Structure to design on (651 residues):
DNA sequence: GGCGACCAATTTTTT
DNA sequence: ATTGGTCGCC
């Protein structure tokens, strides 16, 4: 077993061996932050702290998993409470949500963005609010912001203006609806734990003694709810340890307040502060470029990373004629690097928006280069996979009418929206969950509406669905897919629908994943599986071992590193993004975004931009990003390939 | 009332 | 690529 204190600098050692009391680690990019956090957890355990007494919260499952594995390698112990903010909160709520007495139970469903949006649309329809006047997505944003600020619909009621009053009503209806459905959204996971702890000193004490040591990763990206959570979970001993880098704050659009990290010392005057400014990842030239770029931000704490690594090669800035030429050029360089012996897994391409992956994918497919795309449409967002998940949600939470709608809709069994509405109306009147009503053996007598043969058949089908045991989870998912009849449904369509084959594959893959999960967690409940599925993110699917090129957005690349990095589309409109114009703070965040991208690279980085680009369905003239002008000329190699005649030959 | 077929609209970044 | 809306047909 490697020694916990091996190979650490003085500053790292100070952070690792810290025991009691608050601590802030300001860790620059590539300064060994993850190493410090994992070693500290290992150190605590080696000093007699129980692994279960450590609560560490990260932003992605991948970061959490990595921490657990490293701690296990150091101590042989797997700390059970290392996870994302959202998964930790979901676990706490499974046990304690009922204490809030808001009508929800521990069997709650976690709604993703799409589910959230459909509930909002429903509420808007009821409030006679036209979707063309007010975009549902905008309402969702408003609600999310309100929740992050702990504003109830009641406290917002005084808001002036007809429009916002309508909005408040929709918010209130949305909240009521979620409680009815026994469902929570992503914000609720955090908010409800905050509410629970705020109003219950005894429970707070229980948590404080259970979680003696609290660690928060990526503290610069915490929003107000996460901040409050941290405050509430911090006990009188103030054993709270946060790490972060204000220069890498890229989630303010999601409510992150990077000033949280600057104010930590104010919140905890006793805090020890450790600064990690030596970079172990990148070459001197990469770091010089990154440092220069970020120095253009005005609202920041002065910090200059240094490295003892090799000088390296200059960063490249390349101008290409168009988006296709850009993709072609990048793919050519990737192939060249591979020929020189650089594995594809050591290369990555970053971009600002998911849509920018298209031309790259086209070229990669043509060149036969395997790649993994992080983001875009996720596996669990596929229609057929969501259909299966809806079945499972219904099994756990009989009140989930959104899932019921989906299940009824994907069966084409002669039961449509109107029938489901009638079921919902009666179950609301009778005070019984819709699925309980449907699956009642005595459905025919208890249902007062007109019960067609098809509906009776559907009720019978629901009863059989309910009879499927929830565990072991792999067997359950297999049985549910079998019972759903989705596979034969797609089989029938295979000749007409070219995607039917893929969909069948995805259904089988869903079963496989559940079986894998069962192997890893033999005791897991269906609730646990659904929670896992609801809270996995794109970066979590990144496999650093796989022999292929990685493609992802600049947001998704945080926390990763690659020897060779390409950033494409470094143009006005993308970086900074169009939506951040006229907003100096937003432009600074865009600059941080590029900074994060550049600092992912170990050996070489290349930024490309195109003169023209196909957008919507016309050709657009593009202007190089203002950030490119900020890079130091002496350390950057600028190439103009926009006039290259090759673009005509490779049609 | 239900369903299949077709057309349009939406995507900045995401737990 | 999914979804929501509309239309014609059962």
């Amino acid at each position: 077993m490697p020694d916990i204190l091996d190979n650490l600098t003085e500053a790292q050692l100070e952070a690792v061996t810290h025991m009691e009391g608050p601590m802030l680690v300001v860790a620059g990019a590539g300064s060994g932050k993850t190493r410090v956090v994992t070693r500290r957890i290992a150190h605590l355990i080696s000093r007699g702290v129980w692994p279960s007494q450590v609560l560490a919260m990260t932003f992605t499952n991948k970061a959490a998993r990595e921490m657990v594995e490293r701690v296990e390698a150091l101590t042989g112990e797997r700390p059970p409470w290392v996870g994302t903010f959202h998964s930790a909160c979901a676990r706490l709520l499974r046990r304690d949500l009922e204490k809030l007495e808001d009508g929800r139970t521990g069997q709650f469903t976690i709604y993703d963005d799409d589910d959230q949006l459909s509930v909002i649309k429903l509420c808007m329809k009821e409030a006679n609010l036209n979707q063309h006047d007010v975009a549902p997505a905008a309402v969702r944003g408003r609600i999310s912001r309100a929740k992050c600020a702990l504003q109830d619909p009641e406290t917002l009621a005084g808001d002036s203006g007809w429009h916002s009053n309508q909005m408040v009503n929709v918010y209130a209806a949305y909240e009521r609806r979620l409680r009815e459905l026994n469902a929570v959204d992503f914000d609720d996971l955090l908010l409800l734990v905050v509410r629970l702890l705020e109003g219950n000193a005894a429970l707070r004490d229980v948590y404080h003694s259970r979680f003696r040591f609290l660690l928060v990763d990526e503290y610069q990206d915490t929003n107000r709810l996460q901040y409050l959570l941290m405050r509430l979970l911090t006990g009188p001993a103030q054993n709270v340890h946060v790490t972060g880098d204000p220069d890498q704050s890229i989630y303010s659009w999601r409510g992150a307040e990077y000033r949280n990290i600057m104010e930590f010392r104010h919140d905890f005057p006793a805090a020890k502060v450790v600064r990690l400014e030596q970079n172990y990842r990148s070459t001197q030239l990469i770091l010089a470029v990154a440092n220069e770029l970020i120095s253009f931000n005005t609202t920041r704490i002065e910090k200059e990373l240094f490295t003892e690594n090799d000088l390296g090669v200059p960063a490249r800035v390349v101008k290409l004629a168009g988006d296709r030429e850009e993709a072609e050029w990048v793919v050519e360089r990737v192939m060249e690097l591979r020929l020189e012996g650089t594995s594809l897994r050591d290369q990555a391409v970053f971009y600002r928006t998911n849509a920018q992956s298209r031309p790259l994918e086209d070229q990669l497919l043509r060149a036969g280069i395997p790649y993994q795309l992080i983001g875009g449409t996720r596996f669990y967002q596929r229609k057929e996979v969501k259909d299966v998940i809806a079945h499972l949600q219904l099994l756990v939470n009989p009140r989930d009418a959104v899932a019921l709608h989906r299940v009824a809709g994907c069966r084409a069994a002669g039961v449509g929206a109107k029938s489901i509405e009638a079921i919902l109306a009666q179950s609301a009147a009778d005070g019984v969950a819709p699925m309980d009503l449907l699956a009642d053996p005595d459905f025919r007598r208890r249902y007062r509406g007109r019960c067609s043969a098809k509906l009776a058949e559907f009720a019978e089908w629901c009863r059989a669905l309910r009879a499927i045991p929830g565990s072991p989870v792999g067997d359950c998912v297999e049985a549910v897919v079998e019972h759903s009849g989705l596979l034969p449904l797609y089989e029938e369509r295979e000749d007409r629908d070219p995607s039917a084959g893929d969909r069948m594959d995805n259904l089988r893959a869903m079963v496989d994943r559940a079986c894998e999960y069962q192997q890893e967690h033999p005791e897991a409940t269906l609730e646990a599986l659904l929670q896992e599925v609801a809270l996995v993110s794109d970066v979590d699917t990144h496999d650093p071992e796989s022999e292929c090129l990685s493609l992802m957005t600049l947001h998704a690349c945080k926390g990763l590193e690659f020897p060779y990095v390409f950033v494409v589309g470094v143009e006005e409109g993308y970086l900074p993004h169009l939506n951040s114009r006229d907003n100096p703070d937003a432009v600074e965040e865009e600059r941080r975004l590029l900074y994060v991208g550049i600092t992912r690279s170990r050996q070489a980085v290349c930024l490309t931009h195109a003169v023209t680009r196909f957008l919507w369905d016309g050709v657009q003239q593009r202007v190089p990003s203002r950030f490119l002008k900020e890079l130091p000329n002496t350390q950057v190699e600028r190439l103009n390939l926009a006039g290259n005649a090759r673009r005509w030959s490779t049609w």
Notes: Chain A has a mean pLDDT of 89. Residues 398 and 435 of chain A are 5 Å apart (CA to CA). The radius of gyration of chain A is 26 Å.
